[in-house]
Specification:
Layout (H helix, E strand, L loop, with lengths): L7 H10 L4 H5 L12 H13 L5 H10 L1 H7 L7 H11 L1 H17 L24 E3 H26 L10 H19 L13 H26 L4 E3 L5 E6 L8 E7 L5 E5 L4
Antiparallel strand pairs: 1-2, 3-4, 4-5
Length: about 280
């Protein structure tokens, strides 16, 4: 009688009463002692506690003993102690949690309370297998790639002058252009029957030097292409965890650089996962 008819606890109890708790009850053994508090009731108590920003098992236990709303949810059942609440969350609720909250979302959608138009991502921390020494930086890759491109053009000019060819290179098709050059050099080696030499004291021919330099250019460009593909819109990524991104945050009051490791989640949302810098 002390609880108003329009109190949120009555509405919550009415909604949760219509849920299917089959998965939750399956977590309990069919033999042995009957639970002191019905799992359905304990789930109501836990949900109502979270609604009121009560999260620790000891505070929930206190609320069940002193708050009439929690007492009303228990419907005369004995108040659960903190161990019962903690055991319920850890051992029994885990397998059924996703199903129960899915039923909640479906119910809210059927009542027009949820439109499925917005996606909300929480701040769950995810451990990343990465640290600052495994990161590849976009600025450094672009700088080295530009330097190598100039070396490729210089080497191509030398090749064209030596063999009277007209090879060119483009930034959009660097790998394909280098493959064409290498194919020409391999065919020339084959036609001349030239054997390449290796080791100390061996003098390499001009053709072999061209072959090795362009082969190195090609392999490095392929690696740069992989880096650029993994960067997407980021400025860095980790070699051991390509979803991780290293971000420079604001300096602290002592002007020390502060870095935080983030991992990309759904809808281009970044979640803080680890700190690996002084």
């Amino acid at each position: 009688m002390l609880i108003p008819e329009d109190d949120s606890v009555r509405l919550l109890s009415q909604i949760l009463e219509g849920f299917n708790y089959e998965k939750l009850y399956k977590a309990y053994s069919s033999t042995g002692r009957k639970p002191a508090v019905e799992p359905r009731t304990l789930f109501k108590v836990l949900t109502y506690a979270y609604m009121n920003n009560i999260y620790t098992s000891r505070k929930i236990e206190t609320a069940c003993r002193r708050d009439i709303n929690f007492m009303w949810l228990l419907h005369g059942q004995s108040s659960p102690d903190h161990s019962t609440i903690a055991r319920f969350r850890k051992n029994y609720l885990g397998d059924a949690m996703e199903d129960l909250f899915f039923q909640m979302v479906k119910y809210l959608h059927s009542q027009g309370e949820v439109q499925f138009e917005n996606l909300f991502v929480d701040g769950t921390k995810i451990e990343a297998s990465a640290n600052r020494y495994t990161f590849v930086w976009k600025k450094a890759v672009n700088k080295n790639e530009a330097k190598m491109y100039e070396k490729i053009k210089t080497c191509l000019d030398e090749l064209n002058q030596t063999y009277m060819t007209a090879f060119t290179v483009s930034k959009k098709s660097t790998v394909e252009d280098l493959q064409e050059v290498l194919a020409y050099l391999k065919e020339k080696q084959k036609s001349e029957g030239m054997e390449f030499v290796y080791g100390t004291g061996k003098r390499k021919s001009q053709l072999q030097r061209f072959m090795e330099r362009f082969q190195e250019f090609k392999e490095r460009q392929e690696q740069y292409d992989i880096h650029n593909q993994l960067f997407e819109e980021r400025n860095s990524y980790s070699k051991t965890d390509t979803d991780a991104t290293f971000m420079h945050m604001k300096d602290d009051h002592m002007r020390n650089a502060f870095f935080v490791l983030f991992k990309k989640g759904d809808e281009n949302h970044y979640e803080k996962v680890d700190i690996n810098a002084d």
